[in-house]
Amino acid sequence: MASKSLPQRVARAVGESSVAERIARAQELAYGPFTERMQRSPLHSDVLGHSLHPPLTDVTTGCWLSTSLLDLTGGSGSRRASTLLAGFGVLASLPTAFAGAADWADLSGSERRIGAVHALGADTAILLFTSSLVARLRGNHRTGAKLALAGNAVIAGAGFLGGHLALHRGTARRTPAADPDRA
Fold first, then answer.
1. Cβ partners under 8 Å of residue 172, min gap 6
2. What is the rounded CA–CA span in Å between residue 76 and residue 54?
3. Could you tell me the CA-to-CA distances from 172 to 62, 100, 143, 182 in Å, in that order?
4. CA distance 163 to 51
5. Quick one: which of 85, 108, 132, 165 could link to 148 by a disulfide (CB 3.0–4.6 Å)?
6. Phi and psi of 173, rounded to 5°?
7. What burial letters (b/e) apply to 38-47, b meaning 16+ CB within 10 Å?
8. Where in the chain are the domains?
């Protein structure tokens, strides 16, 4: 039997971590009533047969990655566009986080712990990009660009954990695993 890859071992370690359990408990206390409300919202729908959270992440991360690409290659003429993209990414992160919170409330065990660390990373990235946007709006584009790069690094790690949950563990699925009609 082949050994697990490094990324799979990392995800497993997060799922078995007592620190991740403490993070999950803290999030339950902080977000409990909110996640219950989100579970009854259209963002936690069965319409697509899968969670809305994964496709919403593409909008957020696409805006944020584009922000940093413009910062790195666009020169001073792209500052307005990178500021707009950072702002759109922050706005898009709200329904994305809400849908993720609703999904997380359904999880248990190691998936719950992995989701909690994923959410902490996503929350950190949102904070970094919000700070980036504020810096840009105050005319400090260089600081904004650095904060955006840090935000992209954090969201990449958080995205890995979220992707592991959705793709490897199947947590984004809304249809039962044994359903023969599942596409």
1. 50, 51, 53, 54, 103, 165, 166
2. 33
3. 20, 10, 36, 13
4. 12
5. 132
6. -70, 135
7. beeeebbeee
8. 7-168
